[in-house]
């Protein structure tokens, strides 16, 4: 147990060395001779863990790129008297040295041209937008941006979504004040869409007010004419009268409540007679629904028969 601490430290050091080697192999070498290769190198460095960025950069930098990196570190140590250098400052220094003299302007142009791909997940799009956003509109020393920059970034983010419907959803509850708001909102929206698809729905239903206003705008209900309104009122009154008549007139086969025993017996006989009338066939004409003594055909023949 006494040497458990050193063993754990040695194991952690081995894990860090292996992780450093894996990240360095994934990023690749960079000598700074080609500006496009420097851009790709910096994009790969974005996915390196923060605690390994400078170590990976020192391990993979070659030639003039390595000398510029060491000069930036030496200048920082001379000014601040410490060996720790923020990676963001190193990255911007190297990009200014090897990519463009007006880096911010070129990055802003690239950000305006960015568009989300059809099959691109919102998490990867947000990461890509955030990387180019930090390059084009860097924060100050307190990691803040002024409100005007946030307005520009919100507008660019809505355009880069490449969908008017999603951009409209982004500002459905009002224009966000910071760029972080719409990014979080769109991520939660698409996560909810995926959950609803798993339940068998096409997408998450939007807010009722938004849907109602959109439906009213796209498909306005036509206003009925004055004559149509009068007809509808007349039909409603007739229906009300019919309902009252039906409720007031009892059914022919409704058994009377109470009454004497003779009245109830007469009711039962009438029901049996009516049932036979419906089922039996007339002996005179061969049709159902009446008896021979009630047959009109019989009467007509008697009227037309010659008298002796």
UniProtKB/TrEMBL annotation:
<keyword id="KW-0862">Zinc</keyword>
<keyword id="KW-0863">Zinc-finger</keyword>
<feature type="domain" description="CCHC-type">
    <location>
        <begin position="282"/>
        <end position="295"/>
    </location>
</feature>
<feature type="compositionally biased region" description="Basic and acidic residues">
    <location>
        <begin position="263"/>
        <end position="279"/>
    </location>
</feature>
<feature type="region of interest" description="Disordered">
    <location>
        <begin position="249"/>
        <end position="279"/>
    </location>
</feature>
<dbReference type="GO" id="GO:0008270">
    <property type="term" value="F:zinc ion binding"/>
</dbReference>
<dbReference type="InterPro" id="IPR036875">
    <property type="entry name" value="Znf_CCHC_sf"/>
</dbReference>
<keyword id="KW-0479">Metal-binding</keyword>
<dbReference type="GO" id="GO:0003676">
    <property type="term" value="F:nucleic acid binding"/>
</dbReference>
<dbReference type="Pfam" id="PF00098">
    <property type="entry name" value="zf-CCHC"/>
</dbReference>
<protein>
    <recommendedName>
        <fullName>CCHC-type domain-containing protein</fullName>
    </recommendedName>
</protein>
<dbReference type="InterPro" id="IPR001878">
    <property type="entry name" value="Znf_CCHC"/>
</dbReference>
């Amino acid at each position: 147990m006494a040497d458990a601490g050193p063993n754990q430290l040695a194991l952690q050091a081995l894990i860090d060395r292996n992780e450093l080697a894996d990240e360095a192999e994934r990023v690749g070498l960079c000598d700074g001779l080609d500006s496009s290769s420097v851009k790709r190198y910096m994009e790969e460095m974005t996915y390196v863990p923060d605690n390994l960025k400078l170590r990976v950069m020192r391990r993979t930098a070659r030639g003039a790129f390595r000398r510029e990196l060491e000069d930036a570190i030496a200048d920082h140590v001379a000014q601040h008297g410490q060996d720790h250098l923020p990676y963001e400052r190193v990255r911007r220094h190297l990009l200014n040295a090897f990519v463009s003299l007006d880096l911010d302007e070129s990055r802003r142009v690239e950000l305006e041209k960015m568009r989300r791909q059809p099959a691109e997940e919102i998490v990867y799009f947000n990461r890509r937008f955030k990387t180019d956003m930090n390059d084009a509109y860097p924060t100050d020393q307190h990691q803040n941006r002024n409100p005007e920059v946030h307005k520009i970034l919100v507008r660019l983010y809505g355009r880069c979504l490449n969908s008017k419907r999603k951009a409209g959803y982004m500002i459905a509850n009002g224009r966000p004040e910071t760029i972080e708001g719409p990014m979080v909102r769109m991520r939660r929206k698409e996560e909810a869409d995926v959950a609803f698809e798993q339940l068998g729905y096409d997408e998450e239903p939007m807010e009722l007010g938004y849907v109602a206003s959109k439906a009213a705008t796209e498909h306005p209900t036509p206003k009925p004419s004055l004559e149509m309104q009068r007809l509808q009122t007349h039909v409603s009154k007739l229906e009300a009268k019919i309902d009252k008549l039906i409720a007031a007139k009892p059914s022919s086969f409704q058994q009377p409540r109470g009454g004497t025993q003779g009245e109830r017996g007469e009711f039962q006989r009438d029901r049996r007679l009516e049932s036979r009338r419906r089922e039996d066939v007339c002996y005179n004409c061969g049709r159902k629904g009446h008896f021979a003594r009630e047959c009109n055909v019989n009467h007509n023949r008697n009227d037309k028969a010659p008298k002796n």
